[in-house]
Amino acid sequence: MNHENGTTAGPVAEIRDLRVEIDGRAVVDGVSLAALPGRVTALVGASGSGKTTTGLALLGEYPPGARVTGDVRLSADGPAGYIPQHPATVLNPARRVRALLTDIARTQVGHLPPGRRRSAARERVLRALAEAQLPDAAPLLRRYPHQLSGGQQQRVVLAQALLLGARVIVADEPTTGQDALTKSRIVDQLAAVAARGIAVVLLSHDPDVVRALADEVIVMRSGRVVESGPAPDAWRAVQAGRTREPLVDQPPFPQADGSTGTVRPVLRIRDLTARHHDGARGTTVVLRAPRLNLHPGESLAVVGRSGSGKTTLARCLAGLHRDQDGRILLDGTPLPPSLRNRGRAHLAAVQYVFQDARAAFDEHRPVLHQVARTAVRLRGTDADTATREALTTLASLGLPEDLVRRHPGRCSGGELQRAALARALLARPRVLICDEITSGLDPITRRGILDLLTSLVRDRGGLSLVLITHDLDTAARADRIAVLDGGELVEHGPAERVLTTPQHPFTVSLVEAAARLTARTGT
Amino acid sequence: MSGLRSFVARRLLLGVAQTAAVVLLVFALTEMLPGDAAVALAGDQPDPARIEAIREALRLDRPAVERLADWAAGLPHGDFGTSLASGRPVARYIADGFGPTLLLASLTVALLVPLGFGLGVLAARHEGRLLDRLVSSVTLAVYAVPEFALGVLLVTVLALRLGWLPPTAVGYGTDLLGHPAALVLPVLVLLARPVCSLVRLVRAGMIDALASPYVAQARRYGVSGARVRYTHALPNALAPAAQQLARTIDWLLCGVIVVEALYVIPGLGTVLLNAVAERDVPVVQGLAVVFGVLTVVLNLAADLVARRLAPRSGVAA
Amino acid sequence: MTRLRTGRFALGVAVVAVPLLLALLGPLFAGEPGPRGASFTLGDGHWLGTDFVGRDVWQQVLHGGRPVVLTALAATALAYLVALPLALLSALTHRRWLEELLMRPLDVLLAVPSLLLILLAATVFSPGAVGLALLVAAVNVPDAARLVRAAATEAAARPAVEALRMQGETWWRIAVGYVGRSMLRTLAADAGTRLTGVLYLVATAAFLGVGVAPDAADWAVMVDRNRTGLFVQPWAVVVPALLIVGLTMGANLLFDAALERTGKETRP
Predict the structure, then answer these.
(1) Which residues in chain C show pLDDT less than 70?
(2) Which residue out of B271, B276, B278, B303 would a mutagenesis test of the C interface target, given it has the greatest number of C Cβ atoms within 10 Å?
(3) Mean pLDDT throughout B283-294?
(4) Which CATH superfamily is domain C2-31+40-266 in?
(5) Domain count of the fold of chain B
(6) pLDDT tens readout for residues B121-134
(7) B225, part of any domain
(8) String of b and e for C204-226 (b: at least 16 CB within 10 Å)?
(9) Sequence-distant (≥ 6) Cβ neighbours of residue B99 within 8 angstroms
(10) In chain A, what residues touch B220 (CB-CB under 8 Å)?
(11) Which of A296, B71, B148, B232 has a CA between 20 and 30 Å from the CA of residue B253?
(12) Averaged pLDDT score across all residues of chain A
């Protein structure tokens, strides 16, 4: 970030030729890194590339049973700060925010006379919170971590690091699974940290954030550094395809043929309201969608932040959310709100693919058997035909026979997600609902799945796609976009129109946040 | 905070329902007596006078609902009815037995908490090492052993073979405090099961908490070891243990009955067993209500403590 | 740790073997009861002396394990027989009133101390061995149902169940084929701890005279009735007490070790 003041000072933390071996296998091999004050060093790579092991080495932590050679040196006094992917995990659930921060402040005020320690500690706590962009935090101090929002939790964790006087902070995947607005906030925050002269080591596979923040980029694959250097150069190398991955842009889905106005919609939503049971407090309305159409061969992206009701919308369509009013019409005939009341034909017509593919398979049965059951139950084919059909479909999605005869426990997340798609496709659905199916995957796998969806829409004439996502890049592949905020359908229209000339203030802020991320490219 | 308040309200409601259920259940027993209750209770020699007396005492001539209402209305005032065997008020029985039982129970709980938590934390700190293996194995082994079997074995060895302690409390009456040696064996036996269960829970909770990311973060940031253990890890380990403490009240109650019988201590347990043997229904009912309500209240308290310690986890209400 | 577990397993087997074999096979070797002798004597052809009514203690020991073990097994099985369908039904129904109707009364019952309930019932009914098994089973139902239901509810809420519904699978295939299957391990673990708990309760109730004849050949009854002669003839008390300790202690060690072992094996 701060090119002018960063170059002269020496590194506050340095790794030289680090090699970490577990059971004789090197998970990190020959990695060197220098964290300079006020600069952001990004360690980029897919999961399993060794970036987390390298980052934790800066904290002096290694996986159990690891053999470590090489040099890890912190020149600054005091330990390194750490911001994990899920801040809530490092905040003790049984202690109030005040106690969590005062414990650290207490280690800093030991030199003062005992009488003054208390007030000095409190003062430091409040200052650190203000520096972490939590001003007027006094009421916050009385809360428990679970009573804070995700953003507040992350700031409290940051305040802990600032309180410690850390000269280097390791941030582990801080934006994974977040929407554009949250991402943009986190980027601002890390930029502000670097602006204080603190060295930031960013572990990420999120291209937007890396582009926006990094001064130095180190690309890792299978424990080795494949590319490193100042951001623009390393970036160019990545763009030129020399490193092949993992930061790549995405082609759009094929467009639906013809104008959507003339064809009869396959799915129509009229005055849909969905509620959640909320324990003793009764019910709250979590979704209101007055009118939404889906045409054959069309792909519709539903975007929004977490908690905006987009998953509820998907589950209403699939019949997995029972507490709903209004009508969902399939080819003009109403669909029963609950799956339990839908007949075979209805079940087959609208299929749903879950976010967590591993959890959506029975771990005790082979994948192939579970995929084939769709054809048996929903289309009445006999078991042999169903198995043959399943094998063909699975193979067309890139899953060979020996793989799908295994149990789910022995397949990767990406493979299971493909199998889940196959399971849904075997019903020959008219509408395929994909609920954040790529959000748990690394960029290469995600790219593969999205490409697969692209070819599905192209090859299977008339298949319509509902794509639930928090990621505007993914949404940009669709024909149309519907935007949800706080359970309200605030805007919908052609993808290009929504992304270029958004109308609702929320959409504007969402698009702007995404644009800001892209604009921050470290050139 | 409103979450906590509604939790307390719901939990209190359940407590009230449980108390009502205990009272109803206890009352329903006499109704379940086969045939004529008075004849059934009179025993092997159905003497007409005795049957009449029982009929009188239980007011069997009046409808059940009316009797229930009367009996339940008397409970809050300490009016539990009169004994069939002696004609004395049940409240007197309870008052007589209360002292020794309270002494036993409070001594046990007073030792149980420090012992259970202390040993649990100790074992967790030495996880996998000799001390931990010793503590875990012994607690696991003793945990399931019935008090009476353990009790007679301890009496045989410590009292009869070695002669260190008196074998029973016979002859001391209710003045147990004056003879502390007589209390050692009963308290030891009473402690055995709850301590084992508590140690195991605290140990497991501590090991989990010490391995958690938030403890790793506290250590990383230089918070001292003792502080991490006692202010960061222990509260998280306490929540399940506090609930277990409530569950062990059930055991303590079973234990009290057995231990009093074993060491001939004239407490509530002995009163209850005698009444059961004599089929003295009003006394059994009175004691059951006292024990039942006590359990309900203690369970309630423990759930509230657990909720305070683990504010996030919804304690099952 | 693996060595420790194996050690514990072996220890459990060793400790439980003697009382269990005695309990199951003892009656086959006991033979005809001899003539009664004097109370609480030692020697005189009686290997372990005589008991409070002058019977041979060894013969009583051979007979006395079976009621404890069989009653406990029957009570555990009975408790699940009631708890399982109750819990599965309430976990898989989407009718809230049915769920409340099935589970709320059990919540209320949970508060009543188990031994108290048994003693209360004993005041009125004077139950026999079958009655005792029924009573012990009854006091175990609320807790078992709660546990099974928690496991079933967790399994039923998984996306895998929704995926099965999405495929149009039948209720039975979902309930038994998936939910039931997923619960097996929790169930096995609970059955182990429950059986030790039931053993405890059955023995204690027998010691207090519930469900047994006053002169029954039952280890717990032997401990109770022969206590009066503890000074003269300790074997009549010590041997059955040791056998009960071995049975409960060994069972607990065994189940714990078995549980950790299966937990290790099935983890990927």
Answers:
(1) 1-5, 40, 44-46, 52, 260-268
(2) B276
(3) 82
(4) MetI-like (1.10.3720.10)
(5) 1
(6) 888 888 878 888 88
(7) yes
(8) bbbbbbbbbeeebbbbbbbbbbb
(9) B174, B267
(10) 59, 61, 79, 82
(11) B71
(12) 82
